[in-house]
Amino acid sequence: MGRQPARALESGGHRLNALRNLRLLLEYDGAGFAGWQLQVGHRTVEGELRRAVREVTGETPKIYAAGRTDAGAHAEGQVVNFHYAGRLSVARLQAAVNAHLPADVVVLDAGEAAPDFHARYSARWRRYRYRFLDRAARPVLDRGRCWQVPGPLDVAAMAEAAAALTGVHDWTTFCAASEPAADRVRTMREARVGRNGHYVDVLLTGEGFLRGLVRGIAGGLAEVGRGRRPASWFAEVLEARDRRLAPKTAPAAGLTLVEVLYDGPPHNYSSAP
Q1: What is the mean pLDDT of residues 77-103?
Q2: Phi, psi of 226 (to 5 degrees)
Q3: Which residues are 64's β-sheet partners?
Q4: How does DSSP assign 137-156, residue by residue?
Q5: Backbone angles phi, psi at 210, to 5 degrees
Q6: Can you name the residues that pair with 130 across neighbouring β-strands?
Q7: Global pTM?
Q8: Are β-strands 255-262 and 74-84 bridged in parallel, bridged antiparallel, or unpaired?
Protein backbone atom coordinates (compact mmCIF):
# COMPACT_ATOMS: atom_id res chain seq x y z
CA MET A 1 0.00 0.00 0.00
CA GLY A 2 1.12 3.56 -0.65
CA ARG A 3 1.55 6.22 1.98
CA GLN A 4 -1.66 7.70 3.34
CA PRO A 5 -2.28 11.36 2.54
CA ALA A 6 -1.69 13.79 5.35
CA ARG A 7 -5.35 14.54 6.03
CA ALA A 8 -6.26 10.86 6.30
CA LEU A 9 -3.68 10.60 9.05
CA GLU A 10 -5.41 13.41 10.91
CA SER A 11 -8.79 11.73 11.36
CA GLY A 12 -10.43 13.29 8.35
CA GLY A 13 -8.37 16.44 8.40
CA HIS A 14 -9.98 18.01 11.49
CA ARG A 15 -7.62 20.39 13.27
CA LEU A 16 -7.20 21.55 16.81
CA ASN A 17 -7.04 25.29 17.29
CA ALA A 18 -4.35 25.12 19.98
CA LEU A 19 -0.79 24.83 18.75
CA ARG A 20 1.41 22.22 20.39
CA ASN A 21 5.14 22.81 20.66
CA LEU A 22 6.76 19.54 19.56
CA ARG A 23 10.34 18.61 20.35
CA LEU A 24 12.19 16.01 18.28
CA LEU A 25 15.50 14.24 18.79
CA LEU A 26 17.27 13.52 15.47
CA GLU A 27 20.12 11.35 14.28
CA TYR A 28 21.63 11.81 10.84
CA ASP A 29 24.58 10.91 8.67
CA GLY A 30 25.72 14.22 7.23
CA ALA A 31 27.76 12.81 4.35
CA GLY A 32 24.96 13.32 1.84
CA PHE A 33 23.84 16.73 3.09
CA ALA A 34 24.98 20.30 2.46
CA GLY A 35 24.54 20.91 6.19
CA TRP A 36 21.53 21.41 8.43
CA GLN A 37 20.21 24.74 7.19
CA LEU A 38 17.76 24.99 4.32
CA GLN A 39 19.50 26.01 1.08
CA VAL A 40 17.84 26.41 -2.30
CA GLY A 41 19.17 23.86 -4.76
CA HIS A 42 20.94 21.77 -2.12
CA ARG A 43 19.96 18.73 -0.09
CA THR A 44 19.89 19.62 3.62
CA VAL A 45 18.69 17.94 6.80
CA GLU A 46 16.25 20.78 7.50
CA GLY A 47 14.89 20.50 3.98
CA GLU A 48 14.24 16.75 4.30
CA LEU A 49 12.57 17.17 7.70
CA ARG A 50 10.37 20.03 6.46
CA ARG A 51 9.30 17.93 3.48
CA ALA A 52 8.45 14.94 5.67
CA VAL A 53 6.46 17.05 8.16
CA ARG A 54 4.56 18.70 5.32
CA GLU A 55 3.69 15.35 3.73
CA VAL A 56 2.41 13.97 7.04
CA THR A 57 0.56 16.98 8.43
CA GLY A 58 -0.14 19.28 5.50
CA GLU A 59 1.59 22.03 7.48
CA THR A 60 4.90 23.76 6.78
CA PRO A 61 6.01 25.00 10.18
CA LYS A 62 9.16 26.90 10.98
CA ILE A 63 11.63 24.37 12.40
CA TYR A 64 14.18 25.48 14.98
CA ALA A 65 17.36 23.47 15.59
CA ALA A 66 19.75 23.48 18.53
CA GLY A 67 22.74 23.75 16.18
CA ARG A 68 23.38 24.24 12.48
CA THR A 69 25.80 21.50 11.56
CA ASP A 70 28.22 21.91 8.64
CA ALA A 71 28.05 20.12 5.31
CA GLY A 72 29.30 16.58 5.91
CA ALA A 73 28.94 16.76 9.71
CA HIS A 74 26.76 14.32 11.63
CA ALA A 75 24.41 14.26 14.61
CA GLU A 76 23.55 11.69 17.25
CA GLY A 77 21.45 14.09 19.32
CA GLN A 78 20.23 17.08 17.33
CA VAL A 79 17.18 18.68 18.98
CA VAL A 80 14.53 20.57 17.02
CA ASN A 81 11.13 22.05 17.79
CA PHE A 82 8.17 23.29 15.80
CA HIS A 83 4.55 24.24 16.43
CA TYR A 84 1.84 21.86 15.25
CA ALA A 85 -1.88 22.55 14.89
CA GLY A 86 -3.06 19.02 14.08
CA ARG A 87 -4.37 16.21 16.25
CA LEU A 88 -1.97 13.35 15.59
CA SER A 89 -0.50 11.89 18.76
CA VAL A 90 3.22 12.44 19.19
CA ALA A 91 3.91 8.73 18.72
CA ARG A 92 1.92 8.54 15.48
CA LEU A 93 3.51 11.70 14.15
CA GLN A 94 7.01 10.38 14.89
CA ALA A 95 6.28 7.10 13.12
CA ALA A 96 4.71 8.83 10.13
CA VAL A 97 7.52 11.37 9.75
CA ASN A 98 10.11 8.59 9.92
CA ALA A 99 8.24 6.75 7.15
CA HIS A 100 8.69 9.83 4.95
CA LEU A 101 12.33 10.53 5.81
CA PRO A 102 15.28 9.16 3.79
CA ALA A 103 17.56 6.46 5.18
CA ASP A 104 20.23 8.91 6.43
CA VAL A 105 18.06 10.81 8.92
CA VAL A 106 15.65 9.56 11.61
CA VAL A 107 13.59 10.89 14.52
CA LEU A 108 14.83 8.98 17.58
CA ASP A 109 12.29 10.41 20.00
CA ALA A 110 9.53 13.00 20.17
CA GLY A 111 7.54 14.77 22.85
CA GLU A 112 5.54 17.84 23.71
CA ALA A 113 7.55 20.75 25.09
CA ALA A 114 6.54 23.80 27.11
CA PRO A 115 5.11 26.61 24.96
CA ASP A 116 8.21 28.74 25.48
CA PHE A 117 10.72 25.97 24.73
CA HIS A 118 13.11 26.80 21.87
CA ALA A 119 15.63 24.19 20.69
CA ARG A 120 18.34 26.80 20.21
CA TYR A 121 17.69 29.49 22.79
CA SER A 122 16.65 27.16 25.63
CA ALA A 123 19.82 25.06 25.32
CA ARG A 124 22.36 25.40 28.11
CA TRP A 125 25.20 23.36 26.63
CA ARG A 126 26.04 21.51 23.45
CA ARG A 127 28.43 18.58 23.19
CA TYR A 128 30.42 17.78 20.05
CA ARG A 129 32.83 14.97 19.26
CA TYR A 130 35.63 15.11 16.75
CA ARG A 131 37.01 11.71 15.77
CA PHE A 132 40.44 10.91 14.35
CA LEU A 133 41.65 7.58 12.96
CA ASP A 134 45.42 7.22 13.25
CA ARG A 135 46.13 3.93 11.51
CA ALA A 136 47.73 3.40 8.10
CA ALA A 137 44.77 1.57 6.56
CA ARG A 138 41.89 3.73 5.37
CA PRO A 139 38.52 3.49 7.19
CA VAL A 140 35.86 1.29 5.65
CA LEU A 141 33.07 0.80 8.20
CA ASP A 142 33.53 4.37 9.47
CA ARG A 143 34.34 6.05 6.18
CA GLY A 144 32.94 9.55 6.19
CA ARG A 145 32.76 9.50 10.01
CA CYS A 146 36.37 10.28 10.96
CA TRP A 147 39.54 12.02 9.80
CA GLN A 148 42.34 9.61 8.97
CA VAL A 149 45.74 11.08 9.85
CA PRO A 150 49.22 9.51 9.78
CA GLY A 151 49.79 8.15 13.25
CA PRO A 152 50.15 7.41 15.94
CA LEU A 153 48.79 10.58 17.53
CA ASP A 154 50.24 11.65 20.87
CA VAL A 155 47.05 11.62 22.92
CA ALA A 156 48.75 12.80 26.12
CA ALA A 157 50.08 15.91 24.36
CA MET A 158 46.68 16.57 22.78
CA ALA A 159 44.98 16.28 26.17
CA GLU A 160 47.50 18.69 27.69
CA ALA A 161 46.84 21.17 24.89
CA ALA A 162 43.06 20.79 25.19
CA ALA A 163 43.19 21.73 28.88
CA ALA A 164 43.70 25.34 27.76
CA LEU A 165 40.24 25.35 26.20
CA THR A 166 38.13 25.24 29.35
CA GLY A 167 36.77 28.51 30.67
CA VAL A 168 35.76 31.76 28.98
CA HIS A 169 37.72 32.67 25.87
CA ASP A 170 37.68 34.80 22.77
CA TRP A 171 37.70 32.14 20.01
CA THR A 172 38.87 34.35 17.13
CA THR A 173 41.86 32.13 16.32
CA PHE A 174 39.80 29.00 15.74
CA CYS A 175 36.37 30.16 14.53
CA ALA A 176 35.38 31.19 11.01
CA ALA A 177 36.43 34.71 10.05
CA SER A 178 32.81 35.48 9.13
CA GLU A 179 31.66 35.30 12.75
CA PRO A 180 30.88 38.76 14.24
CA ALA A 181 33.85 40.03 16.24
CA ALA A 182 31.60 41.13 19.10
CA ASP A 183 30.15 37.61 19.50
CA ARG A 184 33.28 35.48 19.75
CA VAL A 185 33.52 35.16 23.53
CA ARG A 186 32.01 31.87 24.73
CA THR A 187 32.40 29.44 27.64
CA MET A 188 33.86 25.96 27.21
CA ARG A 189 32.76 23.66 30.01
CA GLU A 190 34.66 20.52 29.05
CA ALA A 191 37.50 19.55 26.71
CA ARG A 192 38.70 15.93 26.77
CA VAL A 193 40.83 13.78 24.49
CA GLY A 194 40.84 9.99 24.69
CA ARG A 195 41.85 6.94 22.70
CA ASN A 196 39.76 3.89 21.79
CA GLY A 197 41.93 1.57 19.74
CA HIS A 198 42.94 3.40 16.58
CA TYR A 199 40.34 6.11 17.18
CA VAL A 200 41.12 9.32 19.04
CA ASP A 201 38.12 11.35 20.18
CA VAL A 202 38.01 15.01 21.15
CA LEU A 203 34.92 15.77 23.25
CA LEU A 204 33.95 19.42 23.68
CA THR A 205 31.05 20.80 25.73
CA GLY A 206 30.27 24.51 25.47
CA GLU A 207 27.45 26.98 25.86
CA GLY A 208 27.47 27.66 22.14
CA PHE A 209 29.80 26.96 19.25
CA LEU A 210 30.80 29.47 16.62
CA ARG A 211 30.94 28.43 13.01
CA GLY A 212 34.04 26.35 12.31
CA LEU A 213 35.12 26.32 15.96
CA VAL A 214 35.23 22.57 16.64
CA ARG A 215 36.89 21.84 13.32
CA GLY A 216 39.39 24.64 13.95
CA ILE A 217 40.22 23.24 17.37
CA ALA A 218 40.55 19.74 15.91
CA GLY A 219 42.96 21.03 13.29
CA GLY A 220 45.11 22.58 16.00
CA LEU A 221 45.06 19.47 18.17
CA ALA A 222 46.12 17.41 15.16
CA GLU A 223 49.23 19.59 14.86
CA VAL A 224 50.07 18.84 18.48
CA GLY A 225 49.23 15.13 18.21
CA ARG A 226 51.43 14.71 15.15
CA GLY A 227 54.37 16.32 16.93
CA ARG A 228 54.49 19.39 14.73
CA ARG A 229 53.79 21.74 17.64
CA PRO A 230 54.32 21.51 21.41
CA ALA A 231 51.28 21.36 23.66
CA SER A 232 52.07 24.87 24.96
CA TRP A 233 51.65 26.30 21.45
CA PHE A 234 47.92 25.65 21.54
CA ALA A 235 47.28 28.03 24.46
CA GLU A 236 49.50 30.66 22.85
CA VAL A 237 47.59 30.79 19.57
CA LEU A 238 44.26 30.71 21.40
CA GLU A 239 45.18 33.72 23.50
CA ALA A 240 46.62 35.55 20.47
CA ARG A 241 43.08 35.89 19.04
CA ASP A 242 44.51 35.97 15.54
CA ARG A 243 42.94 33.90 12.77
CA ARG A 244 46.16 34.13 10.76
CA LEU A 245 47.86 31.87 13.31
CA ALA A 246 45.26 29.12 13.02
CA PRO A 247 46.21 25.75 11.55
CA LYS A 248 44.29 24.14 8.71
CA THR A 249 40.66 23.41 9.61
CA ALA A 250 39.88 19.72 10.11
CA PRO A 251 37.48 18.03 7.64
CA ALA A 252 33.78 17.96 8.53
CA ALA A 253 33.59 14.15 8.30
CA GLY A 254 34.98 13.69 11.81
CA LEU A 255 32.47 16.03 13.46
CA THR A 256 29.34 14.86 15.30
CA LEU A 257 26.83 16.79 17.41
CA VAL A 258 26.50 14.32 20.29
CA GLU A 259 23.87 15.92 22.51
CA VAL A 260 22.21 19.12 23.64
CA LEU A 261 21.64 19.80 27.33
CA TYR A 262 18.72 21.71 28.80
CA ASP A 263 17.39 22.69 32.22
CA GLY A 264 14.38 20.89 33.67
CA PRO A 265 13.03 17.36 33.23
CA PRO A 266 14.78 15.38 30.48
CA HIS A 267 11.64 13.96 28.76
CA ASN A 268 13.90 11.35 27.11
CA TYR A 269 16.35 14.04 26.08
CA SER A 270 19.62 15.05 27.68
CA SER A 271 19.35 17.61 30.47
CA ALA A 272 22.02 19.50 32.32
CA PRO A 273 23.03 18.18 35.73
Answers
A1: 97
A2: -90, 5
A3: 81
A4: SPPSTTTTSSEE-SS---HH
A5: -70, 160
A6: 202, 255
A7: 0.89
A8: parallel
